[in-house]
């Protein structure tokens, strides 16, 4: 598929021909501009007309077009290239200077272990083979943004946007994907190991009958599965795992070699997650042991009756979300937009996500066709 055809498909919801033209130009600029992808540099690499920079700035920041409709088309296009077995929920930390970019605040970064001045985006990713594709985004808005009428007005934050903690943003992404996609079965995978109220996410997924593999804080209260006639008090998930012996499992990531890893694991209840059931169903708690005193993230999954190799492989594949975000930053200009308005931030995220999807899926299709040609050439007539 040519870039023109792809752009026409993904941005078909844009009502005006000039909007669709500028969408294609911006997308083209993201794909061909080396280095920093400011609007000025995108314009310079796609046209000699000095007015193009202002037109692109107007298109991404001020032009009224529907982010949700574009991401809906992108979701369908990605799914047409494969049937993703999981929905990954990840986050993007967008460092900013000053306090004028919409949603900017002090946030802790899981990747760097530091607190930074940044925007924080929660994204939904679909896996096709070894690559994860962003198909939706929600911007975290702290109370200091949603409760300040002046800030709301300057950033053009819609009245419908109120404060939502990270677990609520994750559930909103799951609900939006559910509305877009026909298949009822997807496993939700997320790293929420820094979310103190992760129980609300787990309970929300259980209520929606969504299987999940979620990294949780070590203080999550759990009960061991067994004879609970005299129910003991809950203990922390980390304490429960620390008491378990290690066992080995073969971890199979989507791409790369299988590896043998050591885990601590236990079947547990997480009290209070299921309405009408005080203890709820059994869950599997597990964590990889990486050294004498080093363990990986602590995961809990509703796939309690699947083997440890299967659920550990699902958890290991979540690292592809961080890889995708790093690629968006490095190659597609994720960090190169001021993002002072709420609509502008979402428009830029839609355009960056579309450029990433086109580049990676076009390469994947080309590789598949090359393999088919090689296979055909090797057949005996």
- Total strands: 12
Helix content: 40-55%
SSE order: HHHHHEEEEHHHEHEEEHEEEEHHH
Oligomer: single chain
- Average of pLDDT: 89
* Beta fraction: 15-25%
Amino- and carboxy-terminal Cα gap: 31 Å
Count the helices. How many? 13
Largest sheet: 12 strands, mixed
- Overall shape: it is globular
Model regions low in confidence, pLDDT < 50 over at least 5 residues: 364-381
Quickly give the structural class: alpha+beta
- The value of Rg in angstroms is 23 Å
Which descriptors apply to this entry?
alpha+beta; 13 helices; 381 residues; 23% strand; 12 strands; 12-stranded mixed beta sheet
Q: Could you characterize what this model shows?
A:
The chain is of the alpha+beta class and about 375 residues long. The chain has helices at about 5-10, 15-30, 40-45, 50-60, 65-80, 145, 150-155, 165-180, 200-205, 235-240, 310-315, 320-330, 340-375, and strands at about 85-95, 105-110, 115-130, 130-140, 185-190, 210-215, 220-225, 235, 245-250, 260-270, 285-290, 295-300. Strands 1, 2, 3, 4, 5, 6, 7, 8, 9, 10, 11 and 12 form a twelve-stranded mixed β-sheet that branches. The protein is globular. The model is unreliable at about 365-380 (pLDDT under 50).
In short:
With 381 residues, the protein is of the alpha+beta class. It is built from 13 helices and twelve strands. Strands 1, 2, 3, 4, 5, 6, 7, 8, 9, 10, 11 and 12 form a twelve-stranded mixed beta sheet that branches.
